[in-house]
Amino acid sequence: MNDSDEIAPAVQSILASARKRGGGDEPLSVSPRSFDAALERAEREGHNPVIAEVKPTSPTTDGERNDDPVELAREMVAGGASALSVLTEPAHFGGSPENLRRIREAVDVPVLRKDFILREEQLDTVEADLILLIVRFVDDLETLLSAARERGFQVLVETHSSAEVKDALAAGATIIGVNTPARVCRSHRDGA
Fold first, then answer.
1. Residue 11 is part of which domain span?
2. Mean pLDDT, range 76-87, rounded to an integer
3. What is the DSSP letter of 72?
4. pLDDT-derived band of residue 62, with 50, 70 and 90 as boundaries?
5. Is the model's pLDDT at 161 over the cut of 70?
6. CATH number of residue 138's parent domain
Protein backbone atom coordinates (compact mmCIF):
# COMPACT_ATOMS: atom_id res chain seq x y z
CA MET A 1 0.00 0.00 0.00
CA ASN A 2 1.22 3.51 -0.77
CA ASP A 3 2.38 5.80 2.01
CA SER A 4 -0.64 7.19 3.89
CA ASP A 5 0.86 10.72 3.76
CA GLU A 6 -0.07 10.75 0.06
CA ILE A 7 -3.68 9.80 0.79
CA ALA A 8 -6.30 12.50 1.40
CA PRO A 9 -7.94 12.59 4.85
CA ALA A 10 -11.34 11.57 3.41
CA VAL A 11 -9.77 8.48 1.83
CA GLN A 12 -7.93 7.69 5.06
CA SER A 13 -11.33 7.68 6.81
CA ILE A 14 -12.76 5.31 4.18
CA LEU A 15 -9.78 2.97 4.58
CA ALA A 16 -10.03 3.04 8.39
CA SER A 17 -13.66 2.00 8.07
CA ALA A 18 -12.74 -0.74 5.59
CA ARG A 19 -10.08 -2.13 7.93
CA LYS A 20 -12.73 -2.60 10.64
CA ARG A 21 -15.17 -4.47 8.40
CA GLY A 22 -15.02 -8.22 8.45
CA GLY A 23 -16.15 -10.65 5.83
CA GLY A 24 -17.98 -13.92 5.48
CA ASP A 25 -17.51 -16.95 7.67
CA GLU A 26 -16.46 -19.25 4.82
CA PRO A 27 -15.10 -18.77 1.30
CA LEU A 28 -17.67 -18.13 -1.41
CA SER A 29 -17.85 -20.09 -4.63
CA VAL A 30 -19.09 -17.88 -7.45
CA SER A 31 -20.33 -18.78 -10.92
CA PRO A 32 -19.80 -15.41 -12.61
CA ARG A 33 -21.43 -13.97 -15.67
CA SER A 34 -18.67 -13.28 -18.18
CA PHE A 35 -17.56 -9.66 -18.26
CA ASP A 36 -15.66 -10.24 -21.53
CA ALA A 37 -18.77 -11.73 -23.16
CA ALA A 38 -20.87 -8.74 -22.03
CA LEU A 39 -18.41 -6.30 -23.61
CA GLU A 40 -18.20 -8.35 -26.82
CA ARG A 41 -22.01 -8.53 -27.03
CA ALA A 42 -22.30 -4.73 -26.80
CA GLU A 43 -19.69 -4.27 -29.52
CA ARG A 44 -21.39 -6.86 -31.77
CA GLU A 45 -24.65 -4.94 -31.34
CA GLY A 46 -22.93 -1.69 -32.32
CA HIS A 47 -22.91 -0.15 -28.83
CA ASN A 48 -20.10 1.21 -26.76
CA PRO A 49 -19.82 -1.01 -23.68
CA VAL A 50 -20.86 0.92 -20.57
CA ILE A 51 -20.53 0.02 -16.90
CA ALA A 52 -23.26 1.95 -15.06
CA GLU A 53 -22.90 2.63 -11.35
CA VAL A 54 -25.42 2.23 -8.53
CA LYS A 55 -24.06 4.56 -5.84
CA PRO A 56 -26.42 5.85 -3.13
CA THR A 57 -24.10 8.68 -2.03
CA SER A 58 -20.49 9.83 -2.02
CA PRO A 59 -18.28 11.83 0.33
CA THR A 60 -17.90 14.37 -2.50
CA THR A 61 -21.64 15.02 -2.97
CA ASP A 62 -24.49 16.31 -0.86
CA GLY A 63 -27.54 14.17 -0.27
CA GLU A 64 -28.36 10.58 -0.96
CA ARG A 65 -30.30 8.78 -3.70
CA ASN A 66 -33.55 7.37 -2.40
CA ASP A 67 -34.45 5.39 -5.54
CA ASP A 68 -35.01 1.69 -5.22
CA PRO A 69 -31.54 0.40 -6.23
CA VAL A 70 -33.05 -2.64 -7.97
CA GLU A 71 -35.37 -0.50 -10.08
CA LEU A 72 -32.50 1.85 -10.89
CA ALA A 73 -30.33 -1.11 -11.94
CA ARG A 74 -33.09 -2.47 -14.18
CA GLU A 75 -33.45 0.94 -15.84
CA MET A 76 -29.70 1.12 -16.42
CA VAL A 77 -29.70 -2.29 -18.10
CA ALA A 78 -32.76 -1.37 -20.17
CA GLY A 79 -30.86 1.77 -21.22
CA GLY A 80 -27.98 -0.32 -22.54
CA ALA A 81 -25.57 -0.88 -19.65
CA SER A 82 -23.29 -3.83 -20.40
CA ALA A 83 -22.46 -4.30 -16.71
CA LEU A 84 -23.26 -2.68 -13.38
CA SER A 85 -20.99 -1.42 -10.63
CA VAL A 86 -22.68 -1.59 -7.22
CA LEU A 87 -21.24 0.11 -4.15
CA THR A 88 -21.19 -2.07 -1.06
CA GLU A 89 -19.18 0.31 1.17
CA PRO A 90 -21.73 1.39 3.82
CA ALA A 91 -20.20 4.21 5.89
CA HIS A 92 -19.17 6.67 3.17
CA PHE A 93 -21.10 5.57 0.06
CA GLY A 94 -24.36 4.23 1.56
CA GLY A 95 -23.90 0.89 -0.17
CA SER A 96 -24.68 -2.57 1.11
CA PRO A 97 -24.02 -6.19 0.24
CA GLU A 98 -27.79 -6.74 0.39
CA ASN A 99 -28.39 -4.21 -2.40
CA LEU A 100 -25.80 -5.97 -4.54
CA ARG A 101 -27.41 -9.36 -3.87
CA ARG A 102 -30.86 -8.04 -4.83
CA ILE A 103 -29.56 -6.28 -7.95
CA ARG A 104 -27.64 -9.34 -9.12
CA GLU A 105 -30.79 -11.44 -8.81
CA ALA A 106 -32.79 -8.88 -10.82
CA VAL A 107 -30.52 -8.31 -13.84
CA ASP A 108 -28.77 -10.49 -16.39
CA VAL A 109 -25.55 -8.48 -16.87
CA PRO A 110 -22.33 -8.87 -14.88
CA VAL A 111 -22.33 -7.05 -11.55
CA LEU A 112 -19.14 -5.58 -10.08
CA ARG A 113 -18.79 -5.24 -6.32
CA LYS A 114 -17.24 -1.81 -5.79
CA ASP A 115 -15.74 -1.54 -2.33
CA PHE A 116 -12.46 -1.14 -0.52
CA ILE A 117 -11.42 -4.78 -0.16
CA LEU A 118 -8.22 -5.04 1.84
CA ARG A 119 -8.17 -8.60 3.22
CA GLU A 120 -9.08 -12.03 1.90
CA GLU A 121 -12.05 -12.62 4.22
CA GLN A 122 -13.69 -9.46 2.85
CA LEU A 123 -14.04 -11.29 -0.48
CA ASP A 124 -16.61 -13.56 1.17
CA THR A 125 -19.19 -10.87 1.97
CA VAL A 126 -21.48 -11.27 -1.07
CA GLU A 127 -21.49 -13.01 -4.44
CA ALA A 128 -20.74 -10.80 -7.43
CA ASP A 129 -19.47 -11.43 -10.94
CA LEU A 130 -16.50 -9.11 -10.56
CA ILE A 131 -14.81 -7.47 -7.63
CA LEU A 132 -12.72 -4.32 -7.49
CA LEU A 133 -9.20 -4.31 -6.06
CA ILE A 134 -7.47 -0.94 -5.84
CA VAL A 135 -3.69 -1.29 -6.25
CA ARG A 136 -2.73 1.61 -4.00
CA PHE A 137 -4.70 0.26 -1.03
CA VAL A 138 -3.85 -3.46 -1.16
CA ASP A 139 -0.73 -4.70 0.62
CA ASP A 140 -0.34 -7.97 -1.34
CA LEU A 141 -2.16 -7.66 -4.65
CA GLU A 142 -0.93 -10.96 -6.07
CA THR A 143 -2.21 -12.98 -3.10
CA LEU A 144 -5.58 -11.18 -2.95
CA LEU A 145 -6.01 -11.49 -6.72
CA SER A 146 -5.34 -15.24 -6.49
CA ALA A 147 -7.76 -15.66 -3.57
CA ALA A 148 -10.48 -13.83 -5.51
CA ARG A 149 -9.98 -16.02 -8.58
CA GLU A 150 -10.05 -19.18 -6.46
CA ARG A 151 -13.57 -18.17 -5.43
CA GLY A 152 -14.59 -17.64 -9.06
CA PHE A 153 -14.56 -13.84 -9.13
CA GLN A 154 -13.37 -11.92 -12.16
CA VAL A 155 -11.22 -9.06 -10.88
CA LEU A 156 -11.06 -5.46 -12.05
CA VAL A 157 -7.82 -3.96 -10.75
CA GLU A 158 -7.94 -0.18 -10.43
CA THR A 159 -4.77 1.81 -11.02
CA HIS A 160 -3.94 5.50 -10.79
CA SER A 161 -0.52 5.71 -12.44
CA SER A 162 1.71 3.95 -14.93
CA ALA A 163 3.69 2.47 -12.01
CA GLU A 164 0.48 0.97 -10.62
CA VAL A 165 -0.38 -0.47 -14.04
CA LYS A 166 3.02 -2.19 -14.00
CA ASP A 167 2.34 -3.49 -10.47
CA ALA A 168 -1.07 -4.80 -11.57
CA LEU A 169 0.42 -6.59 -14.57
CA ALA A 170 3.22 -8.05 -12.43
CA ALA A 171 0.60 -9.40 -10.00
CA GLY A 172 -1.26 -11.11 -12.86
CA ALA A 173 -4.18 -8.74 -13.42
CA THR A 174 -6.04 -9.25 -16.68
CA ILE A 175 -8.72 -6.54 -16.33
CA ILE A 176 -7.19 -3.18 -15.46
CA GLY A 177 -9.01 0.11 -14.98
CA VAL A 178 -7.16 3.41 -15.05
CA ASN A 179 -8.62 6.05 -12.74
CA THR A 180 -6.89 9.32 -13.46
CA PRO A 181 -8.01 12.91 -14.04
CA ALA A 182 -8.51 13.90 -17.66
CA ARG A 183 -5.95 16.70 -17.29
CA VAL A 184 -3.25 14.08 -16.66
CA CYS A 185 -4.23 12.21 -19.80
CA ARG A 186 -4.22 15.39 -21.89
CA SER A 187 -0.84 16.45 -20.55
CA HIS A 188 0.66 13.06 -21.33
CA ARG A 189 -0.87 12.92 -24.79
CA ASP A 190 0.28 16.45 -25.60
CA GLY A 191 3.81 15.59 -24.57
CA ALA A 192 3.83 17.96 -21.59
1. 4-189
2. 97
3. H
4. confident
5. yes
6. 3.20.20.70
